[in-house]
Each structure stands twice: as structure tokens, then as C-alpha cells.
Amino acid sequence: xxxxxxHGYGEGEKILxxxxxxxxxxxVFSPRDVSPNNLELKLNDYRSQFPEKEYVMDPxxxxxxxxxxxxxxxxxxxxxxxxxxxxxxxxRLEIEKNVIEILESSINFQHNISTSSIIxxxxxxxxxxxxxxxxxxxxxxxxxxxxxxxxENKKPLYCSLVISSDAIRNIQxxxxxxxxxxxxxxxxxxxxxxxxxxxxxxxxEIFNSDTISAWMLINHxxxxxxxxxxxxxxxxxxxxxxxxxxxxxxxxxWSNLRNFSMERFTPTSAGGRxxxxxxxxxxxxxxxxxxxxxxxxDRIIGIKNNLDNxxxxxxxxxxxxxxxxxxxxxxxxxxxxxxTPQIKDNITNLNMHIxxxxxxxxxxxxxxxxxxxxxNSDHLEPLLFALSRFSQITEI
Amino acid sequence: MISIPIEKIxxxxxxxxxxxxxxxxxxxxxxxxxxxxxxxxxxLFMLPNxxxxxxxxxxxxxxxxxxxxxxxxxxxILEKSxxxxxxxxxxxxxxxxxxxxYHFICYSEEFLEGENLATLIRNNYKPKEKExxxxxxCLFKAVENIWxxxxxxxxxxxxxxxxxxxxxxxxxVLLDLGIAYIINETPLTVEPxxxxxxxxTRYLAPEMLMPNFRGNLDFRSDLYTIGVTxxxxxxxxxxxxxxxxxxxxxxxxxLNEKPKSLCDYRDDFSSEICAFINQLLKKVVALRPSNIxxxxxxxxxxx
Lengths: 396, 303
Fold this sequence. Notes:
The complex is a heterodimer. Helix content of chain A is about 40%, strand content about 15%. By secondary structure, chain A is an alpha/beta fold. Chain A starts with a strand and ends with a helix. Helices cover about 35% and strands about 20% of the residues of chain B. In chain B, a hairpin with a 2-residue loop joins strand 1 and strand 2 (about 30-35). The interface of A and B includes residues 175, 179, 182, 183 and 395 of A.
């Protein structure tokens, strides 16, 4: 099970340092945040230095229907219009010929640069599987392999599958959708799966038991049917996905690279203050502010990870560019703890880990009764319910 | 109760010698007869008499037509099939006949020497793990063949429809495609909303109990019933249904109950084969593995 960097704005040397320290196993590039020329330069540079790592590019074609949005911000993605990107209407996407053209141009572009795999484009399923968009999305998947074969590609082909958390919570519809995509005539090698939330900071929506159990179900079903799965923007949910068969998960340095929302492309405000620096505590399955971590780390055993990159937080607030290294290290270690081939054991161990986290929070309460809203234990109960719901659906 | 004297049957099948009764079920009676030096199974499908159909007059003909079309569909699939694990057609081509008041369609299939699995289960036969693996491989290949050649789902895989032969090249053979469903042809069931799903209740896949199940049907329903059959053959009991359960309870068990692991009944079996069969029994269709070639590969590795 691998951890990839979710590339985005403000890369600096974060990824380079992550690769050097072997904290990440690859990169999912964001064309919104790098021009076509620079993408190629970066790919060649990283590949020459770290040839064993994996490099893919999310075509971000799900933004193609945002053309008329008043706050559109697709960044450098507009520079890809010479290659594959263009705005679309849903009417046009219902026509097979147009979908094939889109697939071929995007696949050609990725074929000609140094990515290790190809991610076929797709649109987002925004509300329901019983929708026009879901039909279009399934057509993209069904037609992708044929478009890919025309280039006699040797790179593995992943299909993008971008689903809103609203849609996946309807478990009956999700099961039917999975039944369809696990039995297609020309299957891809795998899926690049993104679950989209209303906002990348909406913790109640992100830590929703139905959403997480459904996300786990998608991974488990695809794995049983022999697909590889890369989960984009999975951050702290990653160990839950790896426990049921995911091959790779991704996270980055800003909250909009940790949790996916279409708001990333349609921001409601122009900027704001820099986010608070946070330490990812494996024991809590959560991040604490630097102040909280500094107060608690030596008083409660289990808060501190005792990993190499803890040192980043040892001497005061860390350099902003290095914060993500500690996050990657923590998540990668968590993933390794819950990725045995025995799913039942992984689920049992995750349950125990959450119970321990609840105990840690009880202990914290006596020292710091009031934590930051993002640091508190509100995420743990939904995670417990998600495991229980997943076990029930899958009869594990 | 259908009762035709054997002399009249022998007279009807005049090209055959030594005609004798074997079995009956539903609207079907099966005889055995010899033609040349080969034994064949002679199958008579009774067409419903109008007076026995308790439906409005306008539906009676449609129901009789449905019966005829089902037989034709079964024969179409059997004619296309080249799999040794599916019963083959015999010399007698399908034709309509009448003896006394009984109106039927008849044709012949090869006669398979052996026992059906239901009889073996009743006689407390305890197969070894290797035999279960052989059974699974034969049935997977049969289902793959039906799906590839005809885009059809068998829908009635159960111990009664599988013969354990003495032939090492085809140790298990699947029979009776009478309610097979071809996904891209017109459904045959008349008044489907008024009738139970086609198949044998205890062997219905969970998705067959859903409204409008025909729109989502594929061979993974057969994978479920293969799992149920292999489990029952190995354990001697059905994984979910119990004697004395009424229809509602059986449906509820199929939809909601998690079966015990096969290893609870057969501690001499490996955990791998028990987990393998367990995966076929998943209620969510997308949790049953869809790559039959991979499934066979896994089974071969367990031998």
C-alpha cells in the first residue's frame, strides 16, 4: 500500500523532500497548479532522481462543466486547452463521439509525457447515481480502454471516478453502480477514485459514517474484482481504505489537498490567513495545533508518534514547508499498521485503535478541556460507525 | 398428478428401446431409452391444459406460449454450448406430441451415468475438498460458457441439477436450462409482477428478490448459486434455508442472514476453500469476484 503526494499550489521543495526521505511513493500532479512545460520538466527531473516512484497526473476533467461558474479558478489548467482540456456542456458529453475525442486527447497527452500510468478523464457524479451525469461517467469508463489501446500503450490505465459524498451515501444505488462498473467488457487496470465534499473544511461531512463506509465498500469491491485503486485526497481516511484493499492513497499540504471539494476550482473568497500548523497524531487519528501538541506531548503517552519527523516540531513551531513531511510519515505509518491481507484483522485492529484514541481524548480532557474544533474527538464516533456499517454490508 | 402408462410412452418413442421412467418434477417427466448403442434421456415437458390455468382467458394462451418459448430457449442455449460441463442434446429433435389428455413437447439429451448431488446429499455423502474444487471448476466453466456464448444466466443451479458422473474428464455436469434468462432478449415471463421470481426458492440469489431484478441480472447470480450448491454438497446442509421455514422466512434469510463459515461444518477443509465459497455467497453482487478465469486459477492452485 502506497502513499502519494497530492500535488497542488505551493509545492516548493515539499515533494522533493518527501521523496528524498522516502515518505511518499509517488505523486499525483495537478495541472491546475503546473503548466504543461513545467509538468514535463518536473516529471523528467523526479523520474531521473527517483525512478522507482510512481508519477501520474489527474486530468481534472471534472472541471469541464464549470465553464459558466462566476468564481471559476482553474489556474494553469486553461493552458492544457492545446492538449486536451476544454469546457463542455452536458449535452455534448452525452454524445459518444465527443467522449471518445476527449478520452483520446487526454490519453495521448499522458502517453507523451513521463508519467508511469495514465489516468483517463471523467466528469463528477454530483448528486445521485440515478442521474444524467452518472450515465455520462459510466460511458467515459466503458470507452476509456478502447481509446487507450489505439496508442499501443504499455502504461497501466486508471479511470477517474469522481463521486460526491451525497451520491455515495445512497447505498442501494451505489451497489448497483458498483455492479455495473465491475462487469464491463473492456476493463481498465484500475480507478483513480475521488470522493467530493461540499467543502474541504467541512469536517462533519468528511467524517460521516455513511460516506466513509461507502468509500471503503468501493475500494473493497474494486479490489475483489482485481482493479488497482488510487484514492485521491484521502488523508486520514487512508488507513481505513488501505485496510480493505486500496493500493494507494494521497494527501498534500493544504486542507484542499487533503480533502476534495469542487470549491478548489470555484473559491468563494480570494485568499485568507495562513492555516495553523498542525501535528498529525497517529494515536488520535487527528491533527493537533502546535500549541496543543506542545502542551500534551510529554504529559500523555500516545499523543506523540515517536517517528523521525517528530523532530520538526521539537524546537518551536516548524517551518511551514516541513509540516507536511510529518503528516506523510504519520499517515504512511498508519497505513502500514492496517494493511495486512486479513481484512477482518485490519478492521478489528482499527476498532481497537479508535477505542484507544477515545481513551487518549479522555486523558487530554483533564489537561486541555477545550481543544480547537478541528482537534477534538468528533471524528472518532463516525469512524467507529463506519467500520461497523462496512462490516455489516460486506458480511465480514 | 401426471400418469402415463409406460407402454404408451414406449409406443410414442418408437425409435427407442428399453424405455423406462427416471424422474419427474414440475411439468417435466424424464424417461431413459436406448437408440442404437446409446442411452438417452427423453424429456417430456407437459404444456398446461387451459382448464388447469386459473387466469383470465386472455392470459391462458400467453402462459401456454411462455412454456413453449422456455423450452425453445433452453434448446437454443444447449445447441450453442460446446462445454463438456453442460449436458448435450441427443438424437430426438424437439416436437410436440399428445398422449391421452396430455399435451407435451419432447426432445432427448445424452443420458449421464451417475447421481445428482441432491441424492448424494440425502444419502449423507461427504465429498473431499478436492471434489468440491472439481465441482466448482466444472460449474464455473459451464457458467462462463453459457454467458460467453449466449449472454445467458442459468438461474436454477442447485444440487438436483448437477450430475456427479464417473467420467474423469467431466466429473460434474450441469443440467436443466429451463428458466435460463438471456439478457438481451425479450423476457418470457407473463405477468411477472404477479409471480414469484423464477427459480427454486432456496437457491435464489438475493438480487433475484429485488423489484425489477431483470434489469441488473448477470452471471454473478449463478456464482452465488454455485456457492450455495458447493456449500450444501460439502456440509450436507443448506447455508441459509432450514427445513420447515416458510417462504417469507427463507426470503428473509437470503436477504439478511450471514451464513456460517463452511469450515464450521467441515473442519477438515482448508480455510482458503471456505473463504473462497464464502465470497461467492456475498449478498452484494459487486462483492462476488467477476473474473471466472481468475477464480479457476485460484482453485487450481488449491489442488
